[in-house]
Structure formats: C-alpha cells, structure tokens
Amino acid sequence: MRVDWTSALRPHHYVHMNARMHLSGAHASQEPDEGERIAVAAEVLGLLADRTRLALLRRLAAGEADVTTLTEATDATRTSVSQHLARLRLAALVTTRKEGRRVVYALRHGHLRRLVDEALNVADHQIGHLPPHD
Fold it and tell me: Which of 3, 53, 81, 126 is the most exposed place for a label (fewest CB within 10 A)?
C-alpha cells in the first residue's frame, strides 16, 4: 500500500493511512511487508529531496528552533518555511510544542538526524570534499 503524504496538502486535507500508522495496539506488533517498507521509505526520501526541507532538517538536527530561527537558517521566505514545516509535521518527521506564542519545532527521532547527515556525507563525496571510500 502506498502512503501518500502529499495528499494532506490537497484541498480536502485527506491523509491516506494504513494499518502501520494506526495507533491501536492490534497493529503495533505487525511487521510491515518489504513493499510497504520501501514505499514509506521512498515517501520519506521524497520529502528530503527538497533543498529547503533538507536545510530545515539539518538545522533542526542541531536542536529545537522556531520559524524565525529556521527562516534565518535558509534562503527561503517565512511563508515558504512555514509551508515546508507543515508538510514535515504532517508526515510526522518533526514535532511541535508551544512556548508562549511561539511554536518550537524539533526532529521526531534521531534516525532522521542520521539520515540527513548521511545524505550530506554522500554529497561531500560527490562534490569531492572527501575521498571516495567503498
């Protein structure tokens, strides 16, 4: 089953969910089949395949931040940053908490930090900052 995170941004705000995303204990112990794992991984990687979102996640890997801080860390407008953060939140890659009137964002888990770090390491190898290593 394909999980379509982008559908959450369509006019009717539908989010396609599957059994693995359901919070009841009945589904929590089931292992996803390989096709489902690949589909979800492809959706996550697709979300990372945007310069602004990758820059936001890189900044959040250093710690929590609000929209103003995240806007300063990217070359994007505040509106664009907010829209990208909404997509990351809907995809459950970042969490939010209120601090007075501010909304503070954080990475949901360390796996995402490592994924971003590895993508940047691959980029370093591709552009020649590090020697190839196989």
Answer: 126
d(CA 66, CA 69): 5
- Residue 29 binned pLDDT confidence (cut-offs 50, 70, 90): low
Q: Give the closest residue to 104 by CA, choosing from 69, 74, 64.
A: 64
Angle among Cα 100, 96, 48 to the nearest 5 degrees reads 145
Whether 6 contacts 48, CB under 8 Å: no
The structure's pTM equals 0.71
User: Alpha-carbon distance 35 to 18, whole Å?
Assistant: 13
Evaluate whether 90 touches 96 at the Cβ level (below 8 Å).
no
